[in-house]
């Protein structure tokens, strides 16, 4: 049974982690805050998959993943669309932290 | 990982090295980089599907992983081979990567292309 | 009969009419790769067959079915991977030779009057091939991938799509294991249509999110051809 640290509706911030390792956490989301809108299953984290540790037997670490929705105006300085626009992407749990009080 | 690949970051576009002449020579006066996104709407020719199949085979059988090849397409396609039509990107970059990895030499490729061209002429 | 040509070392060689240098390059690379044992002819033949056989018809069927059958629509939105089996698509075995680089978590994104969805993969151009076939060239370019996330309305406008400030343009960046497809809204002028008629207007671009289905456009012929269903 997957344990999810964050609930749907929680505001979260993407951590500004190192980019030395292969990761699928896009640069443009680092340090940005959004809302958890959906759960995904537990997957082996891409940092392990890239090194061939693509399942538990090979030492791959599983983590819950989340769909995080950002307001585009929060992602991009001088966003040229409308305030209502959003972007969704999937993030693994260890890349997230609770959003700071705004 | 050798120096060439270390210089191509996941989001960086810096590329070491030059293009292979055998590949640069395939760009003729009628082949031009498409200007706008919707210009890239076209039904792929059979050879394009054949290229995609080659890329899948190379990845599946362990020579050139799809993700690495796509990253190389991004990097080389915007620099060394920037004048090429986007639809030729996969074949040109795959050939480049295979030569970089020593799968065959530029001379071998040129010789084989001459052979293929002659075969097609004969037909 | 062969003749000797004296080519300069760097003269671009003109291919015979109808055969491009790229086509020659493709064949040469393939032959060398096979000779060097990088893969077999049979490998290539199978992937070619698959690449040429898949197209957006699977996706069109899903959408047309969802438009006409509310219970199927609910199943499709709840579990895309499972619902695909109802139109003969098995994400775990789409090629007959295993799943090359397609993942098995498939989600359908429903367009509403309030939300317009559009898909991209900024990292590498992942695409829901089992339901949409091979991705279009433009989808794979850094031009599209970098710009859609940052200036989505500008990119959509280049495809002829414009939305007002009360429509949320929602970009989905498929950076992990999920693959997405857009379920566009059913357009006006299609009342009483059969599933087959509806499938014909659900084109590839409407399921990526850069176009909206129209009652008079099926992409089966050039725009100058006669209207569909007339």
CATH topology of chain B: Cyclin A, domain 1
Strand order of the largest sheet of chain A: 4-3-2-1-5
Strand tally of chain A is: 5
Q: What gap, in angstroms, lies between the N and C termini of chain A?
A: 33 Å
**Stretches of chain B where pLDDT falls below 50 for ≥5 residues?**
1-14
Rg value of chain A: 14 Å
Q: Low-confidence parts of chain A lasting 5 or more residues at pLDDT below 50? A: none
Proportion of beta-strand residues of chain A: 35-45%
Q: Would you give the CATH topology of chain A?
A: SH3 type barrels
Largest sheet of chain B: none
What's the architecture of chain A in CATH terms? Roll
- The structural class of chain A is mainly beta
| Radius of gyration based on Cα positions of chain B | 15 Å
What is the helix fraction of residues of chain B, given as a range? 40-55%
Secondary-structure-derived class of chain B: mainly alpha
Residues in β-strands, percent of chain B: under 5%
Tell me what the structure shows:
- The complex is a heterotrimer of chains A (102), B (123) and C (230).
- With 102 residues, chain A is mostly beta strands.
- Chain A has 2 helices and 5 strands; from the N terminus they run ββαβαββ.
- Chain A has one domain (11-98): Roll (SH3 type barrels), CATH 2.30.30.
- A 5-stranded antiparallel sheet of chain A has the order 4-3-2-1-5.
- Chain A is globular, with a radius of gyration of 14 Å.
- Chain B has 123 residues and is mostly helical.
- In chain B, α4 packs across α5 (89-100).
- The longest helix of chain B has 17 residues, at 106-122.
- In chain C, 39% of the residues lie in helices and 10% in strands.
- In chain C, α3 packs across α10 (195-201).
- The termini of chain C are far apart.
- Mean pLDDT of chain C is 84; it is low at 1-12 and 96-102.
- Classes of the chains: A mainly beta (102), B mainly alpha (123), C alpha/beta (230).
- Chains B and C meet through α3, α4, α5 and α6 of B and α1, α2, α7 and α8 of C.
- β4 (86-92) of chain A pairs parallel with β3 of chain C, so a sheet runs across the interface.
